[in-house]
## 1
Amino acid sequence: MRFFLVASMVVLCFIGISEGGSLRKNFYRTSCPQAEQIVKNITQQHVSSRPELPAKLLRLHFHDCFVRGCDGSVLLESTASNTAEKDAIPNLSLAGFDVIKNIKDAVEAKCPGTVSCADILALAARDAVSVQFNNEPKWEVLTGRRDGTVSKSSEALINIPSPFQNITQLKQIFASKNLTLHDLVVLSGAHTIGVGHCNLFSRRLFNFTGKGDQDPSLNPTYANFLKTKCQGLSDRTTTVEMDPNSSKKFDGNYYPILLQNKGLFTSDATLLTTKQSRNIVNELVSQNKFFTEFAQSMQRMGAIEVLSGSNGEIRRTCSVVN
Ligand code: HEM
Ligand SMILES: *[C@@H]1O[C@H](CO)[C@@H](O)[C@H](O)[C@H]1NC(C)=O
Ligand SMILES: *[C@@H]1O[C@H](CO)[C@@H](O)[C@H](O)[C@H]1NC(C)=O
Ligand SMILES: *[C@@H]1O[C@H](CO)[C@@H](O)[C@H](O)[C@H]1NC(C)=O
Ligand SMILES: *[C@@H]1O[C@H](CO)[C@@H](O)[C@H](O)[C@H]1NC(C)=O
Ligand SMILES: *[C@@H]1O[C@H](CO)[C@@H](O)[C@H](O)[C@H]1NC(C)=O
Ligand SMILES: *[C@@H]1O[C@H](CO)[C@@H](O)[C@H](O)[C@H]1NC(C)=O
C-alpha cells in the first residue's frame, strides 16, 4: 500500500511536470549563466529613454502567449506565403520588436542557439515594468520555453480578445487558455499602463447604438474629455492614456478608475457587468492585493502551452524560423 502511494505520487509528479510545469527558475543557469542579466541590462537601457516601452513589451508578451502559447510566434515576420500574427488586425501599435532583437543579438553573441525568443520576451516584459520599482521584479518569470515555427494572422484574430467584446466572450477566450474569470479581471489591470487608439472606443462616444448616441455606461465627464481628444468615429491615429494621467506608472489605479465608469474600452467596462467580476474588481482596488494577484496570474499566462523538450526550436533570429 505504501509503495503504491509513493509510486502514484511519483507518477502524479511527472504528470504535473508535463502540464506546463516544464518551466524552471533560471533554466539557463548552466547553459548561459548571464542570459537573464543581459536581458535586464539591455531592457533597462531602452526603458530609460523610452518610458512607453514597458507597456509595449507587456502587451507583446500577452499577444504571444494567447496565440499558440508563449512561443515567440508574435515575433515572426510574414513571408511570401504566410501572413504572420504581427500583421493581423489586432496588431495595432504592437511595438518593441527592435528591443527584443537587440537583446537576442547580445545573448546570441554570448551563448549561440541557447536562449529562446519566447523566454527573452517574457523576461524583458517583466524587467521593463520593474524599472520603476528600482528593478525589483514584480513577478517571477520561469524559463525554458522553446520557440514555435508557426505564426498565422488568422489565429491572432481568433485568439486575441477584442476591445469590443463583452464579459461572456472574454471569459470564453480566457477559459480556452485555462485562465479563470479571476485571471481575466486581474490581467486587465495591465491597462494601468499604455495607450489606446480612438477608433477602438469612439463608438462609445459618438455612435453607440447607431443613433449618434453615447454609451450610457461611460462616465459622461470622461466621455466629454475623450471627445476633446478624438477627432471622430474614424480617427485611427490619435491615442489616449488608458489610465488617465498615470499611463506610464504601473499601479493599482485601473480598478478605482474602472469603478468610476472610466474604463476606456467596452472590454474594460464589461468587467463591472456581472456580480462575480465586479466583486473581483472591488477586491483589487487594494493595490497590494492587485500586485500579489497580478504576479500569480502573469505566471499562469506565461505558462500557456509552452513548448519544451524537443518541441519547437531555439530560434537564431527572433523574426524568422531557423
Ligand atoms: C482582457 C482582454 C484584453 C483586451 C480586449 C485588450 C485590448 C487592448 C487594446 C484594444 C489595446 C489598445 C491597442 C491600441 O490601441 O494600440 C490594449 C493595450 C494594451 N494592453 Fe490590452 N487587452 C486585454 C488584455 C490585456 C492583458 C492580459 C495584458 C497584459 C497582461 C494587456 C496589456 C496591454 C498593454 C500594456 C497595453 C498598452 C499598449 C501600448 O501602450 O502600446 N492587455 N489592450
Ligand atoms: C549589466 O550591467 C552592469 C552595470 O552596468 C554591469 O556591471 C554588468 O557587467 C552587466 N552584465 C551583463 C551580463 O551585461
Ligand atoms: C500590422 O499589420 C499591418 C498589415 O496588416 C502592417 O502593415 C503593419 O506593419 C503591422 N504592424 C506591426 C507593428 O507589425
Ligand atoms: C455578448 O456578446 C455576444 C455576441 O455579440 C452576445 O450574443 C451575448 O448576448 C452578449 N452577452 C452579454 C452578457 O451581453
Ligand atoms: C488546459 O488544460 C487541459 C487539461 O489539463 C489541457 O489538456 C489543455 O491543453 C490546456 N490548454 C491550454 C491552452 O493550456
Ligand atoms: C452610426 O451607426 C449607424 C448604424 O451602424 C450607421 O448607419 C451610421 O452611418 C453611423 N454614423 C456615422 C456618423 O458613422
Ligand atoms: C488629468 O490631470 C489634469 C491636470 O491635473 C486634470 O485637469 C484632468 O482632469 C485629469 N484627467 C483625467 C481624465 O482625470
## 2
Amino acid sequence: MTPAAPGDGWGFETAAIHAGQPPDPATGAVVPPISLATTFAQEAVGRHRGYEYARSANPTRTALETCLATLEGAGFGLAFASGLAAEDAVLRSIPDGGHVLLAPDVYGGTWRLLSQVHRERLRVSTCVLDDPRTLAAAWTDDTRLVWLETPSNPLLSIIDIATVAGLCHERGALCVVDNTFATPYLQQPLALGADVVVHSTTKYLGGHSDVVGGFLAVDDGALADRLRFLQNAVGAVPGPFDCYLVLRGLKTLGVRMERHCANAAAVVEMLCGHPAVSSVLWPGLRDHPGYAVAAKQMRGFGGVVSFVCAGGEAAALAVAERTRLFTLAESLGAVESLIEHPARMTHASAAGSPLAVDPALVRLSVGIETEEDLVEDLRAALDSVERAGAG
Ligand SMILES: *Cc1c(COP(=O)(O)O)cnc(C)c1O
C-alpha cells in the first residue's frame, strides 16, 4: 500500500512539490529517478525492499501514488495507464449483477465503458442524483455504486457531493466522483464523503497534453486492497516515464488552476455579451443552477466553459473551425486552449443515448495563455459567424 503520510499537514502546493518525493537517498537528486527496472533483487527468497516486479509496484509510480493521494486527502492512491483503465478497475470491483446509477451527464467514454463493455455484468441507469426523491425512485436492492462528475462534461452541471454521498451511505452503495474537471486543487470529494475519486491524469494533472494516465484515490483500506488487486491482476499500469510526467505536472497544478480559472472568467464575460451566443454554461455564473453548490464545495470554478450558439449546429461548427489560438481538438486541461464540438467529437459515442448533447454546443478548455489574446481570438471567430449569419 502507498502511505500518504509524508505530506500530512503540508499546504497543497508544498505537498504537490514534495509529498512522496524526498531527495533521492542514493544521490541527492531532487527529482525522483525514472526507475526503469522491471525486476528487483531479493536478499533472500521473499525478502525485498517493497519491490519485486514492476507491474505490482515501481518506485516512480509509488512517488506519484503517494503525491496525488496526499493532494486528494486520501490514505491510498493507485495509478493506471489511462482514466478509463482506472474507471474499469472500479467497475470490476462490483459483484456481478450490480446496478450502477449514473448522473445523466458524464464523460462519453464512461458511458461507453458501462453500456458496452460492462453490459453483460452490470446494470446501468441514469438519474438526476442530488434530488433525494428521484434517487430513491431509481434505487434498487442491487444498487452498488453511484457515479458522478461535477462539474460535468460537457454541460458543467454541478452536483452536491455531500448530499449524494450521504444518500449512498444511508443505502449502502459506493459514491464515486470523477474529479478530472475540478482537480484536487479546486475540490476534494473524499472530504465531502465520497468513497472513490477517479481521475484522468491526462487532463489538468499532467497538464501539458503529453501523457495519458488515470488515478484512483480512496481512504478505505479494504477497498484499496480490492482495487490494488485489480490494478496488478488486470495490469493496466502506467509506465515509469508516464508516472514521472504526471508527477512533474502536479508540481505546478495550483498556479495553473488559478490562471485557468481567471482566464475562463474573462472568456465567459465576453461570451455572455456576444450576440452569436445564446447561453453560456459555467458554474461561476450567478445564474448557473449549480452556482451556490459550486461556491460551497469548490475553491474556484474551473477552466472548462461551454456555450450554445444562437445560429445552431452550423454556427457551432463554424466557430470551432474559425478560432486561431484555440486549437480545434479533443481533450482538455492543458496549458494550451482548445475548442471542440461535443456532439460530433468527444460525445459522438453518446448519440441517441440519454447522454446525447445539443449540436449547437461548443466546449472550450481555456488554457493559460495571455487573457486578452484568448478573448480576442474567440470574439473574432464569433464576430465572423455573426456576420455570416446576418448576411
Ligand atoms: C478524459 C476523461 C476521462 C477518460 O480518461 P482517459 O485518460 O482519456 O482514459 C474520464 N473522465 C473525464 C471527465 C475525462 O475528461
